[in-house]
Structure formats: structure tokens, C-alpha cells
């Protein structure tokens, strides 16, 4: 099962590049498992509102926000493995 990973960011956010980097690193370790969409909340504000996001970075897995803030590589990999198993 492919896990849809949505990364919500903002250009002014100092932590967002770290979240994107973690997602990219996990993708390298788990090829073919993730479908990644990077969403700039300044461009696609509606999606952030739909998810009830109040802060970025945020990461949703299969339509459910799992992280607000940048997770560690290990935390993200574990969450993706859990989603794969559903």
C-alpha cells in the first residue's frame, strides 16, 4: 500500500525545511512506499483549513494529520509503517 504523505509548509517558516528534509530522507529509505505532496499554505489555504491546521510544518498521512512540527526520521518512518499495515 502506498502512503499519501502531505507536508504543509509556509515560506516564512524556519522549521518547514527540516520537515521536508525528513520526508525526503525517509522516502530514500522506503522507495515506492510514499506518495508525497508538498503544500504551501499560502497557495492552498483551503486544504490547511479543511485539516484544521493552526501551525506549520504539519504532516498528514493518508488524510490524517499525524505531526505538527518536524518529526524525527525514526518517528516518521514508524508512522508510515503503521499506515502501510492498515
Report the C-alpha radius of gyration, rounded. Answer: 12 Å
String of helices and strands: EHEHEEH
Cross-sheet strand order for the largest sheet = 2-1-3-4
- Class from helix and strand fractions: alpha+beta
Domain tally: 1
- CATH topology-level fold name: Glutaredoxin
What percentage of residues falls in helices of 4 or more residues?
25-40%
Q: Main beta sheet: strand number and arrangement?
A: 4 strands, mixed
**CATH level-1 class:** Alpha Beta
Q: How many helical elements? A: 3
Pfam family, one: Thioredoxin_3
Organism: Methanobacterium formicicum
GO molecular function, one term: electron transfer activity
Protein name: MJ0307 family thioredoxin
Structural overview:
By secondary structure, the protein is α+β, with helices and mostly antiparallel strands. The protein has one domain (3-84): Glutaredoxin, CATH 3.40.30.10. Helix content is 37%, strand content 27%. It contains three helices and four strands; from the N terminus they run E-H-E-H-E-E-H. The model has no long low-confidence stretch (mean pLDDT 95).
Concise structural overview:
The protein has helices spanning 16-29, 45-50, 73-84, and strands spanning 3-9, 34-40, 58-61, 64-68.
